[in-house]
Design a protein that fits this description.
By secondary structure, the protein is α+β, with helices and mostly antiparallel strands. Helices cover 34% and strands 21% of the residues.
């Protein structure tokens, strides 16, 4: 059953041909990871080194950029419009983003992830706003089927567009360049 789909890979036991001290004539039985697990570990280490190099490049190109901002820029296509305070819905429910973690903070909570979302389901037990219920930490990518319900004002593109339009009207549309 070890080869069943979804079953964890087992480690192979092997016996050394060398005698073990304290047990004359007996080999030592130990476990070692499968070749697939070793390949996965090497891939993760390589990807982490490449990721850190890209973060350094981003920070070098933009003076004063924080690690969090560099990670956000690196993974913004996967994270999508999810910032702290964003409320969105997906196939699993309606969620409020409590935290967006990057780098070492994310790795401390999830050993294979350099970015992580911490969220809670707004309607976990059928009641709005029970923050302790149905909390999840994940790195599910943003899909075309997910939709934003509300965002904090500082991250809401509609608010910025309305401010820019208001500034254009206030300037009399005199060809003044306005940035949002």
């Amino acid at each position: 059953m070890a080869n069943a789909i979804g079953a964890p890979r087992t480690e192979r036991a092997y016996t050394s041909h060398h005698a073990t001290t304290g047990a004359p004539g007996l080999g030592t039985t130990t476990t070692r990871p499968s070749p697939e697990d070793l390949a996965l570990t090497i891939t993760r280490q390589t990807n982490r080194r490449l990721e850190l190099a890209r973060i350094d490049e981003l920070k070098a190109g933009t003076p004063g950029m924080t690690d969090a901002a560099a990670y956000r820029r690196l993974y913004e296509s996967a994270i999508g419009p999810r910032f702290e305070g964003t409320i969105y819905s997906d196939a699993a429910g309606t969620w409020e983003v409590l935290e967006v973690l990057f780098g070492d903070e994310a790795l401390a909570r999830c050993s294979y992830s350099t970015w992580l979302l911490v969220e809670h389901n707004l309607y976990a037990d059928g009641h709005l706003g029970n923050k302790g219920a149905a909390r999840r930490e994940h790195r599910y990518g943003w899909t075309p089927f997910d939709r934003v319900i509300a965002q904090p004002a500082e991250n809401d593109a509609k608010v910025h567009a309305a401010e820019a339009a208001g500034a254009l009207v206030a300037n009399g549309l005199a060809g003044t360049a306005v940035t949002a």
